[in-house]
Amino acid sequence: MLFDLLRPALFLLDSEAAHRLAVGGLKMLPQRNPPKAGILATEVAGIAFPNPVGVAAGFDKDAEVPDALLGLGFGFAEVGSITPLPQAGNPRPRLFRLARDRAVINRMGFNNGGAQAALEQFAARKSRAGVVGINIGANKDSQDRIADYATMTRLMAPHASYLAVNISSPNTPGLRALQDEGALAELLDAVLAARAGAMPEAPPPIFLKVAPDLEPADIDAIARIALDKQLGALIVSNTTISRPPLRSSHAGEAGGLSGAPLRPLALERLRDFRKATGGAIPLVGVGGIASADDAWERIKAGASLVQIYSAMVYEGPWLGARIVRGLERLMRREGFASIAEAVGAENC
Question: Which of 67, 70, 216, 318 has its Cα between 20 and 30 A from that of 52?
């Protein structure tokens, strides 16, 4: 396969340079339409997804290539995280491949071109079809992070299929404190009020992205608030600050760990949130998904949708289409009529 031939050369480059090259390559692809709805089509939070396999936030931080990603066969693309003002992020190097572990460590720090630059990208794709979520964050030096999320909600709601509120990145100091019960309720009230002001009719649903490094009491509190605020979904999960045994030379780098070593923790956390919510709110499974079998396991554990990112570093940008084909085979083999029917089936 083409990516297998290119990978050794890409791995000679600095990780961040290779990523920029990948985004640049996607910009050069011929324009293709999003995938059509097939046997994997599903509806989540009122949105019709042609298939349940999406690209996680972080790959396309500045909304440069959502349509190219959809053209590769992904059912949806989540862009961002985007903050009100541009910010450079943390000092380089800040992105590390752990090839022996099929993992990545990043401490990017919400580097992005800011809301205004993103709005220009969305204006350019205004007539394009496809499900594009917008992941929103707060500036590192903000004096009022809740106000930042409200501002981003107001600006981005008209352009988003859904809004993902990211309070779970470990690379912005203090951000994860917004997962605390009182702070989270205040934040979501501000976001919901801003959304109502920006789009009183047919507003995009709000998804909340949570960390895998949560205690049982945190999980119960987040689940309770998510249900109370009638969120569209919970995205489970972001990168982890924990460190399972790793073999690669960059294992000691600070930042969030993603990829294969995150898989067991992300799966466990998904099951925890499925139990805590009683299946009453959709879940998006993220973390360590690298194959159709991984995605199917996440769906049967309770995920209505799944997202990938780090696995594409090792498997290439066509991984999403391969997972879609594999899910079609698995669904037929196990006798399910739809993805929705398979969600949470391990508990049946």
Answer: 216
**If you ran DSSP here, which 8-state letter would residue 122 be given?**
H
DSSP 194-259: HHHHH-SSSPPPEEEEE-S---HHHHHHHHHHHHHTT-SEEEE---BS------STTTT--SEEEE
Which residues participate in catalysis according to the annotation? 169
Contact 62, 82 (CB under 8 A): yes
Letter string b/e over residues 208-228, b meaning 16 or more CB atoms within 10 A of that residue's CB: bbbbbbbeeebbbbbbebbee
Contacts of 317 (CB under 8 A, 6+ apart): 3, 22, 26, 69, 72
Q: pLDDT of 108-165, one tens digit each?
A: 999 999 999 999 999 998 778 999 999 999 999 999 999 999 999 999 999 999 999 9
Q: How far apart are CA 84 and CA 140, in angstroms?
A: 11
Q: How far apart are CA 251 and CA 25, in angstroms?
A: 29
Give me the domains of the chain, ranges plus CATH numbers.
2-347 (3.20.20.70)
Global pTM value:
0.96
Give the pLDDT band (50/70/90) at residue 175: confident
pLDDT in tens, 195-221: 999 999 999 999 999 999 999 999 999
